[in-house]
């Protein structure tokens, strides 16, 4: 914290703004309209996104004085691994909208601060290359459950091979939410094949795509639209799109991806197979109810990410911070609960931890850092959030993460 603070007081201006509002403004200026719509946008009217933030405003931090919290330790253990701070980087798909080799850059920036990065199944660089960029820093892998069980197993095997610390299965995106900003621009990258590097680099996926290519008459109707969109995409984003895919993707790959990347019929029966399919700790992401949380721990998962996908899936949904409070109250202190959706500042991290999160994930902010200054920008965003958390601890009398207890926050009168 002190380095950033001193630089500021000595008149040095950082490349990456230290507050979220300015970070967002600058990232918007650095992005194309299509990239901004996808990354910054939310579902429907944007109510879930706003509610995520409003939930933080309904809690107030209660500073304690003269507590002598001089030497602070922000490290904490998550799933058996000690992390330098209770912060991880959330998986983000299609980051290459904001610049080439997005996932390698984000992985590099995360590693510069020892912060784990959760590689998205919809990432823009193969997970093996991202892992290589991280050295010893923990990396996790996020899976979207494919319609093809062979692909599920192949992705899990690759995650194990890159030394992933956990397998995160995202449940809230079996179909993509209603995203008017993208729809109005006709620019949803997802349907256009952006972010399919984990698939095209997968041997099982390649086999499936090849099998399908040998059966031309079975091509789905989306094909022509997808190819047209793909061409439009390559015009809209010269460079980044093709560069990230290394070579023009065979048509069969795009079709196969669109057909099998997700299983809308995903059920608890599928999820119950996870613990015998992998030796990795299993984390379910996207849970916002007590009932689902209980069910998850019943099938033996190791942790949850309480999340509404940054407000990108269901409009007017429950704020993830509110869901965390309910789930922690119902399940007690033991189960590992991570939180994302709406974390913007160190004070937010403090509030989430006080309300029962063991750690938090940062989503859009790290992508904005990437948009502004690549890997360095990602590292700076992390450092700023951690620095503010550190100062907040100093000023509230918390020496360790374990000191950030429930009594460090209280509900705003008349709200919670
Ligand atoms: C996401 N998110 C996401 N989640 C996931 O499990 N797999 C994915 O591929 C993606 N892709 C993705 C792309 C973009 C551009 C964004 C902004 C988000 C959701 C992400 O992991 C996380 O839940 C939210 O971003 C957290 O909310 P905030 O911090 O953005 O408010």
UniProtKB/TrEMBL annotation:
Its cofactor is FMN. It holds the Pfam family FMN_dh. Keywords: Oxidoreductase. Residues 12-414 form the FMN hydroxy acid dehydrogenase domain. PROSITE patterns: FMN_HYDROXY_ACID_DH_1 (PS00557), FMN_HYDROXY_ACID_DH_2 (PS51349). InterPro entries: Aldolase_TIM (IPR013785), Alpha-hydoxy_acid_DH_FMN (IPR012133), FMN-dep_DH (IPR000262), FMN_HAD (IPR037396), FMN_hydac_DH_AS (IPR008259). SUPFAM superfamilies: FMN-linked oxidoreductases. Belongs to the FMN-dependent alpha-hydroxy acid dehydrogenase family. This is L-lactate 2-monooxygenase. It comes from Actinoplanes ianthinogenes.
């Amino acid at each position: 914290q002190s380095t950033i603070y001193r630089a500021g007081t000595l008149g040095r201006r950082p490349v990456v703004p230290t507050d979220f509002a300015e970070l967002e403004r600058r990232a918007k200026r650095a992005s194309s309209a299509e990239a901004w719509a996808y990354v910054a946008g939310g579902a429907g009217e944007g109510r879930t996104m706003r509610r995520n933030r409003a939930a933080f405003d309904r809690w107030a931090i209660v500073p304690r004085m003269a507590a002598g919290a001089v030497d602070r330790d922000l490290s904490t253990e998550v799933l058996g691994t000690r992390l330098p701070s209770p912060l991880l980087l959330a998986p983000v798909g299609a980051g290459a909208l904001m610049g080439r080799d997005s996932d390698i850059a984000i992985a590099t920036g995360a590693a510069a601060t020892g912060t784990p990065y959760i590689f998205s199944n919809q990432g823009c660089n193969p997970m093996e290359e991202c892992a290589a960029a991280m050295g010893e820093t923990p990396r996790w892998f996020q899976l979207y459950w494919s319609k093809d069980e062979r692909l599920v197993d192949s992705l899990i095997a690759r995650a194990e091979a890159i030394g992933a610390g956990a397998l995160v299965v995202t449940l809230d995106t079996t179909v993509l939410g209603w995203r008017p900003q993208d729809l109005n621009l006709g620019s949803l990258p997802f349907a256009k094949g952006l972010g399919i590097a984990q698939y095209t680099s997968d041997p099982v996926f390649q086999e499936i795509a090849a099998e399908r290519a040998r059966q031309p008459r079975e091509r789905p109707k989306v094909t022509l639209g997808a190819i047209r969109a793909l061409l439009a995409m390559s015009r809209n984003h010269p460079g980044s799109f093709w560069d990230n895919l290394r070579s023009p993707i065979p048509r069969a790959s795009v079709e196969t991806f669109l057909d099998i990347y997700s299983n809308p019929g995903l059920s608890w029966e599928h999820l119950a197979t996870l613990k015998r399919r992998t030796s990795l700790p299993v984390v379910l992401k996207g849970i916002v109810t007590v009932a689902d949380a209980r069910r998850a721990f019943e099938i033996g998962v190791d942790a949850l990410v309480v999340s509404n996908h940054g407000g990108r899936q269901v409009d007017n949904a429950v704020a993830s911070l509110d869901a965390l409070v309910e789930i922690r109250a119902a399940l007690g202190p033991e189960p590992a609960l991570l939180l994302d959706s709406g974390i913007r500042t160190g004070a937010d991290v403090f509030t989430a931890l006080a309300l029962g999160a063991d750690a938090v994930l940062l989503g859009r902010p790290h992508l904005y850092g990437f948009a502004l200054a690549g890997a360095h920008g990602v590292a700076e965003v992390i450092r700023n959030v951690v620095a503010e958390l550190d100062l907040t601890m100093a000023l509230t009398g918390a020496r360790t993460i374990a000191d950030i207890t429930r009594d460090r926050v209280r509900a705003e009168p008349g709200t919670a």
